[in-house]
What does this fold into?
Amino acid sequence: MADAISKDQVHPQYGKDRHTVSVLMTAPVDDRAMAELARLRVRYLNFPGARDIQQDLDKILQQWGLTEPELFEKTREIHAKGGLYTGLSKRGGEDWS
It folds into this structure.
C-alpha cells in the first residue's frame, strides 16, 4: 500500500501540457503566455507526478523574472480585461481540466 502512495501519477493532459511548456520556455512574454503559465501552475499545484513539467514551470517563472504571486496578479488583470480565450471553446482550444 505504501508503494502505491509513493508512486508518481501520470496526468491525463501530460502530453499536451508537455508541448505547451516546451513552447513557453522560448516564447515571448505576452498575455497569452502568462495566462497559459498560470493555468498550468494551478493544474500541477500539488499534483503527485509530472515533476519535469513542475520544474520547467519554475524555470519559466525565473526566466521571466516573476514570482508566482506576481504571475497570478498579472493574469487576474489580463482575465479582467477579457477576450483572451474568446472563440477558443468553439474550436476546442480552451482547456481548464
Notes: The mean pLDDT is 87.
